[in-house]
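Renewal narrative, Specific Aim 1. Our central claim is that a sequence can be written position by position from structural information alone. The example that follows is taken directly from our test logs and has not been curated for this report. It begins with the structure tokens describing the chain, in the order in which they were read.
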């Protein structure tokens, strides 16, 4: 049992209900005191000025999830390759999938990261939930 920390290392643009004055750049020293309690942390990869944030979380057995983000596809994929293994509530509180700018959604589709969807037919349209789920099942079973 432990804490799921959604912030403060997130995008101001996609902060959701979080207070802007608490949003900050990813800095492991700001969570180091709580590393024995934190089990999962959601970050926006574009807040990782220090490239070792994700690897330090991994060494502390903290799962890194990507979300609340305006990350480019490249930034998100780099974070996944560095050790982020999850995506927090796909499609919500992040830039949209665009044919020229796939962003975090595109990186989630193009990786083996575990993806969280809010399938209440409000947060994500049922067609997208079904499309994403079926594409991931095919991807996972064909590899």
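The sequence written for that structure reads:
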């Amino acid at each position: 049992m432990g804490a799921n920390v959604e912030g403060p290392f997130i995008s101001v643009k996609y902060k959701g209900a979080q207070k802007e004055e608490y949003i900050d750049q990813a800095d492991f020293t700001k969570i180091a005191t709580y590393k024995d309690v934190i089990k999962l942390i959601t970050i926006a990869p574009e807040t990782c000025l220090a490239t070792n944030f994700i690897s330090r979380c991994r060494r502390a057995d903290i799962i890194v999830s990507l979300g609340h983000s305006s990350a480019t596809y490249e930034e998100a994929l780099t974070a996944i390759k560095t050790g982020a293994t999850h995506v927090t509530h796909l499609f919500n509180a992040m830039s949209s999938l665009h044919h020229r700018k796939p962003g975090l959604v595109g990186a989630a589709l193009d990786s083996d990261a575990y993806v969280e969807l809010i399938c209440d037919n409000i947060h994500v349209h049922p067609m997208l939930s079904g499309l994403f789920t079926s594409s991931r099942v095919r991807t996972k079973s064909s590899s």
